[in-house]
Amino acid sequence: MISKGKLITELIVPGGHGRAFEVGKGQLLEIVDVEGRQVADFFAFRKQDHAERLSPSHTRTSLRSLAIKVGDSLRTNWRNPMFEVVQDTAKIHDLLIAACDERRYLVDYGVLNHRSCVANIEEALQPYGIGRDMFLEPFNFFQSTRIEPDGTLIQQASPTRAGDHILLKAEMELIGAVSACPMDLNPIGGSKITDILVRIYDQ
Ligand SMILES: [Zn+2]
Question: How far away, in angstroms, is 10 Cα from ligand 1 center?
Answer without folding.
Answer: 22
